[in-house]
Write a structure and sequence with these properties.
about 575 residues, TIM Barrel, 7-stranded parallel beta sheet, binds zinc ion
Length: about 575
């Protein structure tokens, strides 16, 4: 029994327990155990189980170890089988529908006897769902949308999940005795916000086809298809690996081709053709048909007359022209970040104190942190009434007198109310070093009203940064209807910054819009939206997306010194006669 299969069993148990309405701690225990096992990455759990080593793995307790005992001894879990018998499989699928909680699924099942996604869809269409107590036509509509969304994007994974997955697969493939070199390609290498599969390119010592085939026997594999050196492997938990085994002299070409995007590859291929070169089965050949060894991509770009194009830029959005004429951006590096401006503390819904957040920011090499807790209207998130703000500011002042070479800034994440006003009166807003304005309610407005709401918030000179500007939750909630171009134009006119919220579920603004922000000269704040000390690290994923948007350090507000951030906010407040 390998750890991937065992982890899959444990997370299925967690899902069934959720559907049965078991308490959340119990469900989380199974999920935590699954995570611990995945991180372990063992091909065979049996010896680890027998020696008692598993008992020391994080997240494993008596109940979850009992499941593993079953798996090791019988190859299946009796507990999972019991749960499976008492719960229709279709209900498990319903859990993946955005906006459909386990609680709602139980009501649907008990009230209408629905057991599959298809039945659910039919009931949402013919009005049965809407007739359930506390459902109504709006909920039915939302569920239909959710089902469509799921069909559309069901196989996609968020970038940060895909990255973890890819790292494990690289480690696995790298252990193979015939593999000389292995690298991640595909969407993940291009820093796409979601990825359909993990694509790996591997250089093999022996015939690539043979080596590729040997991976179909890896533990946790459900099936493998494909011919020759390119194989698609599907694992028991639904993960998919595209593995391409090549020779070392093809590696650069294969890596480039498998990284994509298809449009970028076509573009470069055309440039090669103009210079009498061609690609043939991942070989680069010159005019006489001779192989040009290309162990890495630089050979290929050079041959095409281009500067090296970073993978995250390869979207056929002007990068090859720029590479031809020395116009590629000097992309921002994680080390350029000097502080963070979107951080919550335990004053609202964060888990750490102001001091702990400050210490953690300093440990990351930053010289400032802006604490931006929720504002008073966000009662569900412990939003701060004015007297709590005063208390927090006192604490920050006191802290700043003790900290050397480090600064805590007084920020706030103020709700943008339905009419576009910020959540405090001007005399309170004046007390902050800077203000991030975000929408947390009334998402369903039509485009014109929503745009007007945000534009009028931008009219308030207190607003320094527009937080998560479109409200999207990747693979779960579409952005709200809003004219992003109009918002960016306005931000430019009034001197406000927009946020790249680095929460991996958001990555909002989208990189395509950020590119537009850069062109307009609108500054971008990469905000971790940290609710804990570890949450600060999402900034790195934010930088990856910023790079995809062609951003340089000078485009990013929190790549500047604290004094410059303060000056930016002040300039906005004191500017006269803004648009
Ligand atoms: Zn927010
Ligand atoms: Zn926030």
């Amino acid at each position: 029994m390998d750890s991937r299969t065992a982890a899959h069993v444990l997370s299925k148990i967690a899902a069934y327990l959720e559907l049965k309405g078991e308490n959340t701690f119990k469900c989380r225990a199974y999920l935590g155990a699954a995570k611990g096992l995945l991180a372990l990455g063992a091909d065979d759990l049996t010896p680890l189980f027998r020696s008692g080593e598993l008992e020391r793995v994080r997240g494993l307790g008596p109940a979850t170890l009992a499941v593993i005992r079953d798996l090791v001894e019988f190859g299946e879990s009796r507990y999972l089988e019991q749960l499976r018998e008492s719960t229709p499989e279709g209900l498990l699928e319903m859990l993946d529908v955005p906006g459909l909680s386990a609680d709602k699924i139980r009501k649907i099942h008990d009230g209408l006897g629905l057991e599959t996604l298809e039945e659910l869809e039919a009931a949402a269409r013919d009005g049965r769902l809407a007739s359930l107590p506390r459902f109504g036509p709006k909920t039915a509509q939302r569920i239909l949308k959710g089902i469509a969304f799921l069909r559309d994007k069901g196989s996609l994974r968020l970038h940060h999940h895909a990255l973890v997955e890819a790292a494990q697969l690289v480690a696995m493939v790298g252990q193979h005795p015939d593999i000389e070199r292995v690298e991640v390609a595909g969407d993940i290498r291009r820093h796409c916000e979601v990825a359909a599969s993990v694509v790996l390119v591997a250089a093999c010592r022996r015939a690539p086809a043979e080596t590729a085939q040997s991976f179909t026997r890896v533990p946790g594999v459900r099936h493998a298809e494909g011919a020759g050196a390119s194989i698609v492997i599907r694992f028991v938990d639904g993960a998919r690996l595209d593995l391409h085994c090549v020779e070392l002299t093809q590696f650069g070409v294969a890596l480039w081709r498998e990284t994509g995007s298809a449009a970028h590859v076509a573009d470069v291929r055309e440039r090669l053709a103009r210079r009498g070169l061609r690609i043939d089965n991942d070989w680069l050949r010159d005019g006489g048909g001779r192989i040009v060894p290309a162990p890495d991509e630089t050979v290929l770009y050079q041959a095409a007359g281009l500067a090296f194009v970073e993978p995250e830029l390869r979207e056929a959005m002007g990068e090859t022209d720029a590479a031809e004429h020395g116009g590629l951006p000097n992309l921002i590096e994680p080390t350029a970040i000097r502080g963070a401006l979107h951080c919550h503390s335990h004053y609202s819904d964060g888990k750490a104190s102001v001091r702990e957040m400050a210490d953690a920011a300093r440990e990351r090499g930053w010289s400032y942190i802006g604490i931006s807790d929720h504002s008073q209207s966000a009662f569900y998130a412990g939003g701060l009434p004015p007297e709590r703000i005063l208390a927090q500011h006192e604490e920050i002042d006191e802290l700043n007198t003790r900290l050397r070479d480090f600064h805590v800034l007084k920020g706030i994440e103020a709700d943008i109310l339905a009419d576009g006003r910020l959540d405090y009166s001007a005399d309170i807003l004046d007390r902050f070093d800077y203000v991030t304005g975000s929408i947390h309610s009334r998402f369903a407005m039509d485009g014109a009203t929503m745009t007007e709401r945000v534009l009028s918030a931008l009219d308030d000179p207190h607003l320094t940064i527009l937080g998560h500007p479109t409200g999207r939750l990747l693979l779960a909630r579409e952005p709200y209807a809003i004219d992003v171009d109009a918002v960016l134009e306005k931000a430019r006119a009034v001197g406000a910054a927009v946020e790249l919220n680095a929460d991996p579920h958001r990555l909002d603004l989208d990189w395509r819009h950020l590119r537009r922000a850069k062109t307009l000269g609108v500054s971008v704040a990469i905000g971790p939206d940290a609710h804990s000390v570890n949450g600060l690290d999402t900034v790195n994923g934010g930088v990856a997306i910023a790079r995809k948007a062609w951003l340089e350090a000078r485009d990013v507000l929190n790549a500047r010194a604290a004094e410059d951030v303060l000056a930016f906010a002040r300039a906005r407040r004191t500017a006269k006669g803004v648009a």
